[in-house]
């Protein structure tokens, strides 16, 4: 039977006076010393030996922060690494913001959907984050504001991502003993008092979509040059998939014999596995790609740049890649008799009414296969697909 965790409360931490170790669970203990001082300790076994790791005084490390630190160190232990050695290495390698950011990205890379996400983190922090050479302990509110204020109104979405990434790097640094105190990049209760809400600065807009009637002519122009981004965009349009689903795909996800593409739950926005029926046109794109690398290993914005950059590098169009999902949805609604739920499932949208269970059965794949064949036929401008 698993041992319970989160046993202690903030009130208990204030009132406990009995000397010794008081378990919170998961190896985290509150240690009350004979002097009455209190601190956090993580106890764990390594190579059959009980080890103890100090996490800081309760005066500077809160209960929630201690739990977060313990969780981070347990992850190291689960990965076969001694948490004490990992912290010692982090302290020696993460003394600057740039080093801490690199260490954070390396520590979390395996849990992200694809390598492009790690590249996006690194690039955004280089472009808009604190100076890489600055000591991580010196990052304060005024510096965070100096990073965010210039882009908060003009590049609001980017600014909100950068803020969150700075916050996580600083949290990581605190867990590893590289800095103390509150996180100056925290939004709730802190930066929300200094910056306007993103929704007030720049109301959320829908992705600009190409009218579906123009898609066939555009698709006819895409093969004019044989480039990775062009092949990826054709495949994205034919499958009505999201950019990150395509750029993060691996060959193991494709079954060309069954003409199916299975996107694992870990790479889906909704956290549910998504099966995409492949049309002959989509399968032909895959068949022409080398197997020595992932099929569409591109940066997050490669297809967007292709769409929006002026000629000769791009098409100079005011649309987004994500907008082609809307083009597909409008076409299905206005030009076909396929049930609404079939189109919604093709987009991996959640269906909450009672028909969901029925459409999740095997017949749904065939209904969606017919829908995607009709879409490919429309996109090609040919009578047969």
From TrEMBL:
Domain of life: Bacteria
Pfam families: Arm-DNA-bind_3, Phage_int_M
Record keywords: DNA integration, DNA recombination, DNA-binding
Biological processes annotated in GO: DNA integration; DNA recombination
InterPro entries according to UniProt: DNA_brk_join_enz, Integrase-like_cat_sf, Integrase_catalytic, Integrase_DNA-bd_sf, Integrase_DNA_bind_dom, Integrase_recombinase_N, Phage_int_M, Phage_Integrase
Annotated Tyr recombinase domain residues: 201-372
GO MF term list: DNA binding
Family: Belongs to the 'phage' integrase family.
Descriptive protein name: Integrase arm-type DNA-binding domain-containing protein
